[in-house]
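Re: that backbone. Tokens:
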């Protein structure tokens, strides 16, 4: 015996809502090109070959200046 007889449409909606992302991901796997090679995985920096790693450390002062700028920029908008 179904306890909630008025929720058949809701259950159908939930099943459809769960199926749409799954279908999108499966379609992407089927349609997407398979080979990802060499040139495509390189970093592009204005047409020049990248030198060194991308993980470099910045001084914390740059972040602090940026944060102060954002705070005062938003304050001037409200003024």
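Recovered sequence:
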């Amino acid at each position: 015996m179904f306890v909630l007889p008025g929720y058949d449409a809701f259950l159908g909606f939930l099943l459809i809502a769960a199926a749409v992302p799954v279908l999108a991901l499966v379609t992407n796997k089927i349609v997407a090109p398979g080979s990802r090679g060499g040139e495509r995985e390189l970093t592009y920096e204005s047409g020049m070959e990248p030198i060194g790693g991308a993980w470099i450390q910045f001084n914390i002062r740059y972040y602090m200046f940026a944060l102060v700028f954002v705070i005062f920029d938003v304050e001037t908008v409200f003024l």
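The longest helix spans residues 8-31. Residues 42-79 form one domain.
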